[in-house]
Design brief:
The complex is a heterodimer of chains A (104) and B (616). Chain A has 104 residues and is an all-alpha fold. In chain A, 75% of the residues lie in helices and 0% in strands. Chain A has a single domain, classed as Helix Hairpins (Orthogonal Bundle). In chain A, α1 runs antiparallel to α2 and α2 runs antiparallel to α3. Chain A starts with 7 loop residues before the first helix and ends in a 13-residue tail after the last helix. Chain B has 616 residues and is an all-alpha fold. A two-stranded antiparallel ribbon of chain B has the order 1-2. The N and C termini of chain B lie far apart (119 Å). The mean pLDDT of chain B is 86. The radius of gyration of chain B is 31 Å and the shape is globular. In chain B, α1 runs antiparallel to α4, α3 runs parallel beside α15 and α14 packs antiparallel against α15. The chains are: A mainly alpha (104), B mainly alpha (616). Chains A and B meet through α1 of A and α25 of B.
Chain lengths: 104, 616
């Protein structure tokens, strides 16, 4: 492994920052699209940490888990966008605070 | 007749039941006829019985059936008839009949005419059972029966709150005495094994010596019952309030018959009291104290019925004095004459109230002498008898009591002096009533005079109140004979003259106003003393603060269920937590997330702090 050698700590720091940004977005944003995007950010933050860890110890597991996360994220987006459409159809808005009832 | 003695209480009882069941469907004249005739027949039967008794002097014991039989205790529905019973029965049915007749006119306009006569007949039946009972348990049945009827009739006009209050007061205050009396009966039964009066007194005389403690306790408990029923100190407060009932009721129940039941009870069980001289002294002292207290109070009252009520209390005090000094027959004699003249006075006041649009204040009457002559003469004769003026019925009975009281060793002369003071006051307040109501300036116009149904009972009672003193009551066989000695002549002369002095004082103060007492009455001491007497010596106030209000306070406290409060607190706590937790369930995702993150941070911080050693 020549060339660029970034210390693991730095990568973990970036990963944590990304995770925090995603979580903050989840908490602050009301628009469901942004919430989904924040979720993606959080997932990718976790994935980044796995990749970095795999690279650090020279193991393929990190990348395997990354692939898994990517798949889960894709599936989640598929379901999530379906929900977005339903929310838009029922409440005529994308504001999640309006969808606070158990019954439609 | 001796076989059919049970008919006498049965007839008014049946009439009462009939009036209760069918009263609303009967015509008003039929109700009146039924109500009056039933008591009238009883009175006639009593008269027949009296004539028979005068001839053969035979006591009657009539057992109808056994009431109950438990472990050797078998009280019967059985009657005992002797001279004492005869006197009481004559008063109850005779005076009762006159008062029933009076009521037909007095209550004419009342919508609850049938209910009134149903209660009144029931009262007569219960009172007859009381005096005819052969055992103390049956007597107690009659005792409570008259109490219930008294309650129903005091609260007869129940639409007014105050009347209901008076009725409850009458019931509860007498109940205090009745409870003590029930304890006395239980004590007698456990000690002697029987409640049949004759057998019991015989057993008591064999078991106990004079001055033993058990008869003393039993007698004191019986006195408690008598004190409650006969409105003596300290349980007298219900009687003035009981005047809330219709006036004929006051005449029958609260003057002539029921309130004298206590006197009858003590006279009936005199065999026990002879074993407990202390109890007799207690009775005498209660009697004279009540008599004086009530006489002073009557002096200040302005409500015509309250004057008569306090005068009743005072006169029953004399009867208690008589019983206490062992002048049994004098006490019963005064009971009879008092029934005549007090019923007369009450019916007279009823006539005034009836004709004067329910006016009770004597100072708003005045000058009724010429306009209501029958009532005027009733009151003159009734007051003369009440004040014990010579040759009236009250004179003979009260004189006997005072003279026999004088002869009691030790306490006698002081009891006699106090009795004389009471007699003086009695004369003053009774003629104050006559002079204020019937003489002087007219203040209200009566819209009618009495009809015949009022006038006849008044006239008959006038006659009885005049000549009642010459009756010889047939109780010589019942009571132990007195020694027959007479005190010195001056004692008799003083006893005779004191009521005349009272009459003179009342005449000077209230009639020709030669003697002006306004200055005395308006002085500071006079005024406060007058108010003190007017309020009945503040006893009502005292009881109100001592018993009634603390009881209300306690009731109010318990109304809020303090014990349940503990469980309520647990429930409230759970509900509060529930509210807090359910408030978290907003349905807003962002809040859930935020709280999750907050929890996570707290957990991580905690873990980091707790396990610093591990991490490093």
């Amino acid at each position: 492994m020549d060339g660029l050698n970034i210390p693991l700590n730095h990568i973990l720091l970036v990963s944590s920052l990304l995770f925090a940004i995603g979580m903050l977005g989840l908490m602050i944003r009301r628009n469901i699209i942004f919430i989904l995007m924040s979720l993606e950010v959080m997932l990718n933050a976790a994935a980044l940490a796995f990749v970095a860890a795999g690279a650090r110890w020279g193991q393929p597991d990190g990348q395997v888990v990354f692939m898994l996360i990517l798949t889960v994220a894709a599936a989640e987006v598929a379901v999530g966008l379906g929900l977005v459409l339903q929310v838009q159809k029922r409440f005529k808005t994308l504001d999640m605070d309006h969808a606070n009832r158990m019954q439609g | 007749m001796s076989d059919t003695i049970w008919l006498i209480p049965l007839i008014p009882f049946l009439s009462s039941v009939a009036l209760m069941l069918f009263g609303s469907r009967l015509k008003i004249t039929h109700i009146g006829v039924l109500g009056v005739a039933s008591v009238g027949i009883s009175a006639l039967l009593t008269l027949v019985l009296a004539v028979e008794f005068m001839q053969n002097q035979q006591e009657i014991q009539a057992s109808l059936w056994t009431w109950m039989e438990v472990a050797g205790f078998a009280p019967g529905i059985s009657f005992y008839f002797d001279g004492l019973t005869l006197v009481m029965m004559s008063v109850i049915t005779g005076v009762g009949f006159l008062i029933h007749l009076f009521s037909t006119e007095f209550m004419e306009k009342d919508p609850s005419y049938a209910r009134y006569f149903a209660y009144l007949n029931m009262f007569v039946a219960a009172m007859l059972i009381l005096v005819m009972a052969d055992n103390l348990l049956l007597l107690y049945l009659g005792w409570e029966g008259v109490g219930v009827c008294s309650y129903l009739l005091v609260g007869f006009w129940y639409q007014h709150n105050a009347n209901g209050h008076a009725a409850r007061k009458a019931f509860i205050v007498t109940r205090i005495g009745d409870t003590a009396m029930a304890l006395g009966l239980l004590l007698l039964f456990t000690e002697l094994g029987t409640l049949d009066i004759q057998a019991m007194v015989g057993a008591a005389n064999q078991t106990w010596q004079i001055g033993d403690s058990i008869p003393l306790v039993a007698c004191l408990l019986i006195v408690c019952g008598a004190v409650g029923k006969s409105a003596q100190l300290p349980l007298h407060t219900w009687l003035p309030d009981a005047m809330a009932g219709p006036t004929p009721v006051s005449a029958l129940i609260h003057a002539a018959t029921m309130v004298t039941a206590g006197v009858y009870l003590i006279a009936r069980t005199h065999g026990l009291f002879l074993l407990a001289p202390t109890a007799m002294t207690v009775v005498a002292v209660i009697g004279i104290a009540t008599s004086l207290m009530a006489a002073f109070t009557a002096l200040m009252q302005t409500d015509i019925k309250r004057i008569l009520a306090y005068s009743t209390i005072s006169q029953i005090g004399y009867m208690f004095l008589a019983l206490g000094v062992g002048a049994w027959s004098a006490g019963i004699f005064h009971l009879m004459t008092h029934a005549f003249f007090k019923a007369l006075l009450f019916l007279g006041s009823g006539a005034i109230i009836h004709c004067l649009h329910h006016e009770h204040n004597i100072f708003k009457m005045g000058g009724l002498r010429t306009r209501m002559p029958v009532t005027f003469w009733s009151f003159m004769i009734g007051s003369a008898a009440l004040a014990a003026l010579p040759m009236t019925s009250g004179f003979f009975s009260k004189d006997q009591i005072l003279l026999q009281a004088y002869q009691l060793p030790d306490l006698g002369p002081s009891l006699w002096m106090a009795g004389l003071l009471g007699a003086l006051l009695t004369a003053i307040y009774s003629f104050r009533l006559v002079f204020v109501v019937f003489f002087g300036q007219a203040n209200t116009e009566p819209d009618k005079d009495t009809g015949w149904r009022m006038a006849v009972p008044l006239s008959v009672l006038c006659f009885l109140a005049m000549i009642g003193g010459y009756f010889m009551i047939p109780v010589a066989e019942v009571f132990p004979a007195s020694d027959g000695s007479h005190p010195a002549h001056w004692v008799e002369y003083v006893s005779i003259s004191v009521p005349l002095v009272g009459l003179l004082i009342a005449y000077l103060v209230f009639f020709n106003r030669r003697l002006n007492v306004d200055g005395l009455a308006n002085s500071t001491v006079g005024k406060s003393l007058g108010n003190f007497w007017l309020s009945g010596w503040g006893i009502d106030w005292l009881y109100d603060h001592l018993f009634v209000r603390p009881y209300y306070g306690l009731a109010n406290l318990l109304k809020s269920e303090p014990v349940d409060g503990i469980y309520g607190l647990i429930v409230a706590l759970n509900q509060t937590f529930n509210h807090w937790l359910s408030a978290a369930q907003t349905g807003r995702m962002r809040w859930y997330l935020a709280s999750m993150v907050a929890g996570l941070i707290i957990l991580i911080t905690l873990a980091a702090n707790l396990s610093t050693g591990v991490l490093q």
